[in-house]
Design goal:
The complex is a heterodimer of chains A (about 400) and B (about 200).
Chain A lengths: L1 E4 L6 H8 L2 H4 L5 E4 L3 H9 L5 E5 L1 H8 L16 E2 L2 E5 H11 L7 H17 L6 E4 L5 H12 L9 E4 L5 H6 L5 E4 L3 H7 L3 E6 H4 L6 E5 L1 H6 L1 H19 L4 H9 L8 H9 L1 E3 L6 E3 L4 E2 L10 H13 L10 H7 L2 H8 L22 E4 L2 E4 L16 H6 L7
Parallel strand pairs in A: 1-2, 1-3, 6-7, 6-8
Antiparallel strand pairs in A: 3-10, 4-13, 5-8, 5-9, 11-12, 14-15
Chain B lengths: L1 H6 L5 E5 L3 H13 L4 E5 L5 H8 L3 E5 L5 H10 L6 E3 L7 H10 L1 E6 L4 H49 L3 H15 L3 H15 L2
Parallel strand pairs in B: 1-2, 1-3
Antiparallel strand pairs in B: 3-5, 4-5
Helix pairs in contact in B: 2-6, 5-6, 6-7, 6-8, 7-8
InterPro entries (chain B): ANTAR, CheY-like_superfamily, Sig_transdc_resp-reg_antiterm, Sig_transdc_resp-reg_receiver, WH-like_DNA-bd_sf
Protein name (chain B): ANTAR domain-containing protein
Organism (chain B): Microvirga aerilata
């Protein structure tokens, strides 16, 4: 089967499935085809050049809702993991924040956002131009996470700064050329910006919402209808590959695979440090050790939660990409298919949640959900603003945000 | 302006987003042949959005290998600057045209309400020009590799002439015979000779 992907570390599960024999064991082969834009991923899936693809978690939701150009309705039965994103600001901007808010570099993501807010207020007072921040696609975890982080400190992403799109491989150069003052993108581009001495990481996905799905397997419904057996085999192969990717003993081999030019094409030692969660956050040598910075399998990281599809929809509503309409919820739910995941992995060693939806971000304690044959612990789950998301009350959740599209 | 284009009164304005100057020239030429005089080429990502908002095109043509497609996607989401073009794929009534476009690597964004036959003529032209460019590229690559083959054969001949004291014709005949015996290309055999000679160099 033909699989489109964008060169980012979170393509790991697809690469390992093909290169480490998990796909072959299920009697399938993956032809991995590198692409340059999410628009292409969407269009080539629509026009049958791809059967399945590496996709941003909001893309299937957007496609079912008819948002964006050429909205071809696709779905996901399997998430490719969590984590990897960070907000990186230009070093120059961060040093200004340090001066304004007396940061010593040890502050958490929320304190960094408040420092940015103080600096933005001062810059406005001084009549300076608004800051320009980049993400990778309008319907992306990066867009919603960047906005979530800004708004948590009282920064309105639509009026206090300018939000724009820069393709991931160009983000570091754009920052070096001072075309942008910050970006939110997946690994390895954040750490490359720090290593090159142009950027400072100020927040990671784990700080904003640790259990958010990052990339998913997007599936063409035409293809799935004709190949249900192959889709089930693919899910089994990806489940095994994801478990393999999580095992620290395999990180050397995984880093080597991903470093090949056909995949991500960056140095294996940089990839290895990212897999271990050893994040260089400041060119002065400041590092953070982030447990589960990239999580491929543990804590049901592959399960396509309906509640997470609904959270994505809540953010689309929050930022005015779509008006809230209860009738849309059926489309939102058609985008995420836990039923297909569950039937493919029934009876396997992987603990599968027995429910499709949960309250998201319930607090700092570990979330436990019922699963086939017992219970499943999902780890800590708080949003950076400490508000939980009840998937049955989207209007209430959205109206509770002080900053949202008017 | 959308109203004008609906009635076909305003001349069509096309923007080409293309960093490769040869391909941009081929497209420009094709559009002018097709009677579209108002064409702007944007050859750099810098200030692409600002340029587009000034040009305010009815049609934007951009190659699908250009990562800036995602930038346009955002612009159509948030900006009222450009009169909201949509991807031509949205109207999937002409599947053949779309398939040909995707295969040739063309994507186009078209202002809503533009007459279909006008769009089709432009997209068909872009597809044929993209294909023509591909052909040109291929021919160029072939020509380059032929030149490289010829050079490597010359070097291999020289090595054989020196080491085995053969005439030029004999050296060439030996290479040819070996290639035929091993069912390989002459240039590959020549490359092996050059490589092994370099390994033996003191």
């Amino acid at each position: 089967m033909r699989v489109g992907f964008i060169p980012l570390l979170d393509v790991a599960v697809l690469v390992a499935a093909e290169e480490h024999g998990f796909a072959r064991r299920e009697g399938i082969r993956l032809q991995l085809i590198k692409d340059v834009s999410w628009s292409n991923i969407r269009d080539r899936l629509a026009f049958r050049q791809f059967d399945v693809a590496h996709m941003l978690s909001p893309m299937p939701v957007a496609s079912q809702l008819g948002l964006g150009s050429n909205p071809y309705p696709c779905f996901t039965p399997f998430a490719l993991g969590r984590g990897g994103n960070s907000v990186t600001l230009s070093l120059e901007l961060y040093r200004e924040m340090q001066a304004v808010a007396s940061l010593d570099g040890s502050e958490d993501a929320l304190a960094n956002a408040h420092a940015l807010k103080a600096l933005i207020d001062r810059r406005r007072h001084e009549g300076r131009k608004p800051l320009v921040f980049a993400m990778t696609y309008p319907f992306s975890s990066h867009n919603y996470e960047f906005r979530f982080w800004l708004a948590a400190a009282g920064i309105d992403p639509d009026s206090d700064v300018i939000m724009t799109v820069v393709p991931p491989p160009l983000t570091v150069d754009a920052m070096a050329a001072r075309a942008i003052d910050g970006f939110c993108v997946n690994a390895p581009w954040n750490m490359i910006a720090v290593e090159k001495g142009v950027g400072r990481i100020v927040a990671t996905k784990a700080d904003i919402w640790p259990s958010a799905l990052e990339k998913v397997l997007g599936v063409s419904p035409d293809w799935a209808e004709k190949n249900p057996e192959n889709l089930a085999r693919l899910i089994v192969a990806l489940d095994a590959a994801a478990r393999w990717c999580d095992d620290p003993h395999n990180h050397h081999s995984l880093a080597e695979m991903l470093s090949r030019p056909a995949y991500v094409g960056v140095a294996p030692d940089l990839i290895l440090r990212l897999l271990k969660g050893e994040i260089l956050v400041d060119p002065n040598g400041g590092t953070r050790l982030i447990k589960n910075y990239l999580m491929f399998h543990g804590q049901a990281a592959n399960f396509p939660w309906i509640s997470q599809a609904r959270w994505i929809y809540s953010q689309m509503v929050r930022w005015g990409q779509v008006a809230h309409d209860g009738a849309c919820l059926a489309q939102v739910e058609a985008a995420y298919r836990p039923d297909i995941y569950r039937s493919a992995l029934a009876g396997s060693a992987t603990p599968v949640p027995a429910i499709d939806s949960k309250v998201e971000g319930v607090g700092s304690s570990s979330t436990v959900v019922p699963a086939a044959g017992g219970h499943l612990s999902l780890g800590t789950d708080a949003f950076i603003d400490q508000r939980a998301f009840d998937p049955s009350d989207i209007p209430g959740y959205v109206s509770g945000f002080a900053i949202r599209a008017k | 302006m959308t109203n004008d284009t609906k009635t076909g009164q305003r001349p069509l304005r096309v923007a080409i987003v293309e960093e490769n100057s040869i391909r941009a020239a081929i497209l420009l030429d094709g559009l002018q042949d097709a009677g579209v005089a108002d064409v702007e080429v944007i050859n750099t990502m810098t200030h692409m959005l600002r340029r587009l908002s000034i040009i305010d095109p009815d049609v934007i043509i951009i190659g699908i290998e250009n990562p800036s497609r995602d930038v346009l996607e955002q612009m159509f989401q948030v900006s009222k600057l450009v009169s909201r073009p949509v991807a031509m794929f949205v109207d999937q009534s002409d599947e053949g045209m779309i398939q040909a476009a995707v295969e040739a690597g063309v994507s186009a964004y078209v202002v809503d309400g533009l007459r279909k036959e006008r769009v089709k003529a432009i997209v068909d032209m872009a597809v044929s020009r993209f294909n023509a460019f591909e052909r040109l590229q291929r021919e160029l690559t072939e020509a380059r590799s032929q030149l490289a083959s010829r050079k490597i054969i010359e070097r291999a001949k020289g090595i054989l002439m020196r080491n085995r004291e053969l005439s030029e014709e004999e050296a060439y005949a030996l290479l040819r015979q070996t290639a035929m015996n091993e069912k390989r290309k002459l240039a590959d055999i020549a490359q092996s000779v050059v490589t092994s000679a370099s390994l033996l160099e003191k």
